TrEMBL record:
PROSITE patterns: GNAT. Residues 2-164 form the N-acetyltransferase domain. GO terms for molecular function: acyltransferase activity. It is an enzyme of class 2 (transferase). It comes from Deinococcus antarcticus. Pfam families: Acetyltransf_1. Its EC number is 2.3.-.-. This is GNAT family N-acetyltransferase.
Length: 171
């Protein structure tokens, strides 16, 4: 059974391991490279994943082990504070197909619904990530546009699909 909870600074080593593994398993899927992330110090990562008023990183646990991650961050500038983004979603290969992605998305949407004045969630997914896109669409996200020439990896260029979810209506 998958358990999901917000991560804290005490989870930094497990988070670092999962994040590095997902960055290495499918480099084109992420803007951050494994090398960039590996160069970051643990204190900086711990500060990043510690919950704040406007951001939370969720972890999905399978038999007590961290197997998936997702960050939800609310915009802070007044004119866009009604929006939040979902970033850095990843599930370890051996844990895929067991509900971790669904559980992470449910936790993020439920958390976002508690933020006063928030109306929508936003995310981007690289064109090669068909399974991830299906996950997002199952949770009410809809593609509103595609950015060509969005990400480059090893000399290849990929487009990104931009999706949004109206949390007021669930669509």
């Amino acid at each position: 059974m998958i358990e999901v909870r917000p991560l804290t600074a005490q989870d930094v080593e497990a988070y670092r391991g999962v994040r590095l593994a997902v960055l290495r398993s499918d480099p084109p899927a992420f803007v951050t490279t494994a090398a960039e992330f590996a160069a970051r110090d643990l204190a900086g990562i711990a500060a990043q994943i510690s919950p704040t008023e406007n951001a939370v990183t969720f972890g999905a646990f399978l038999t007590g082990e961290l197997v998936g991650i997702l960050t939800l961050a609310r915009e802070t500038r007044p004119s866009i504070r009604h929006r939040a983004g979902i970033y850095g979603v990843g599930v370890l290969g051996e844990a895929r197909g067991q509900g971790a992605g669904d559980a992470l998305m449910q936790a993020a949407i439920q958390h976002a619904q508690q933020w006063n004045g928030l109306t929508s969630l936003h995310l981007a997914v690289v064109e090669t990530q068909h399974t991830a896109r299906k996950l997002y669409e199952r949770h009410g996200f809809k593609v509103w546009g595609t950015q060509p020439d969005a990400v480059q990896h090893d000399g290849q260029t990929y487009s990104e699909h931009w999706l949004w979810h109206d949390i007021r209506t669930g669509q």
